[in-house]
Amino acid sequence: MVEHSRADPERISKYLRANTLIVKIFLGLAVIISCGMVFESEHYTGSLLSLTIIMLFFGISFSNSYFKLDLSYLHTLPLGKREIEKVRVLGFFRLYDWPVIAGFLLFVGFITIRNPLSAIPAAIAYTTAVMFSLAINILLGKKLSNIHASGSLTGSIVKTAVTVLWMLSFYGVYFLYQLILLIYRTEGLDRYVFIYPVPFSMWISDPLNLNHALMSLPYVVLSTVLFTFSIDRIAQENFAKVYGKKTIWKVKKTGRLAAMVVKDFKLLFRSPQMAVIAFLPLFNGLIYLLFFFKGSEILSVAVMQIMTVATASTFTVLDRSSYTHSLPLTEQEVRISKVVSSLFVYLLSLAIIIAAVYCRGGNVVNALSIVPTGLAVILVAVTFSSRISNDPINVESAISFFISLVVVFLPIASGGFATLLLKQSFANFAFPVSVIEMLLFLAAFRIKNR
User: Fold this and answer.
1) What are the pLDDT digits (tens) for 353-380?
2) What whole-number percentage of the chain has pLDDT above 70?
3) Nearest 5 degrees, angle CA 288-CA 293-CA 299?
């Protein structure tokens, strides 16, 4: 492994500050794009759900790192108890400040221009979505950071329960988003007025309708209560609760690569926040299994490949707090293990999507024609991902994301050119380009990690 120089602490400090700024910029852009959907009045529901998903997704990364911080040194400063609690709370919300404010101004501003009377419903709807997302991340993140199972059945059950709640929160909102889009395309949302955030959307569209306001009220109250309680949780000290007794470890001899891959998944399952991000392609595949429609097979594979960037980045940053740095492993061995771990998630997700395409009568050949691009995307993500930050969303993963967009686009563009202009099969052009990409990035990966 490469040793760091004496200047590293200063370099790492600058990197982490830059990383936080870049991530906040990405959060701001994502929130702005989500709020931009309100240009169309019928997209109020989609905009609010998209905002909730984005806040949950970025919040998973933020809370994972924030609640692992040791802030006990604050007690050595001339600060009172209330002041220390304020530092804990404001330190967390400092990660969200201007992106959330920018989104609020954009969301409410666009709606107010269309109908000034809708300003108050829009402000309440936006605030409710943000409060709910932050409360979920705070409550579950804080709980998970305080649990150490230590081989105990009780501790494992508690940690598993919290993990399931976390996944249900994020994946549940994502599932709801896809479900509402399907309902909107097929029969409209009028019959589903009690499902969040449909009542808010209707209240914004008809701000003087008291029934819509009353139907939105339970969600406002629930989010407010959860958010208030979560603020109190941030202010509290982190006291780990340990379940079980000392465990007797057994050492098993196995191959380096297999051991590294198994270790990756073990670390992943011990960090549910990371697991939620890493398994996003897998859950996306399950979504397509339920909501797949004929003609979307190429898009479904392409979206899943882009999500694999987050998977590879997550596996890479897992080593930030791992023991692998003290082992006689080369940088190449470590990176290859990340490729294999990510490839496992990719292939499993791909199998689910191909099954959906086959069962719904889609074009399996077209879906399979861009499969090699997935390996190219993983190689890009592993090559650029950093092990300095313990956040899966970092500067390097952002670079990987933009490169991967180009990598995924090229075979689709070539296949589209063949279909639209040359009147030939999509796969005849897309597959060779996809294979070439894979071989080029394999060669570059091998050269860089020699």
Assistant:
1) 898 888 878 888 988 999 999 999 999 8
2) 73
3) 65
Q: What distance in Å separates the CA atoms of residue 389 and residue 319, rounded to the nearest whole number? A: 10
Q: For 147, which DSSP code?
A: E
- State the Cα–Cα distance between residues 300 and 367, nearest whole angstrom: 8
169, 140 Cβ separation under 8 angstroms: yes
CB within 8 Å of 104: residues ≥ 6 apart: 123, 126, 127, 130
Q: Rounded CA gap, 92 and 397, in Å?
A: 22
Separation CA 449–CA 10 (nearest Å): 26
Q: Which residue has the tokens 């998970």?
A: 144
Of the candidates 42, 70, 330, 366, the one whose C-alpha atom is nearest the C-alpha of residue 204 is 42
pLDDT value of position 95: 77
pLDDT single digits (tens) 72-131: 666 677 777 777 777 777 777 777 888 889 889 988 888 888 888 989 999 999 999 999
Query: Per DSSP, which regions of 353-442 are E strands?
Result: none
Rounded distance, CA 277 to CA 61, Å?
8
Q: Phi first, then psi: what are they for 339, rounded to 5°?
A: -65, -45
Task: Tell me how crowded residue 400 is: count the other CB atoms within 10 A of its CB.
Answer: 27
Under a CB-based contact definition with an 8 Å cutoff, are residues 118 and 108 in contact?
A: no
Q: Is there a contact between 122 and 111 (Cβ–Cβ < 8 Å)? A: yes
Name the average pLDDT for the chain: 77
* Rounded to 5°, angle at Cα 66 from 155 and 377: 90
Interior/surface letters 387-397, b for 16+ CB within 10 angstroms, e for the rest: bbbbbbbbbbb
Give the integer Cα–Cα distance in Å for 133 and 58.
10
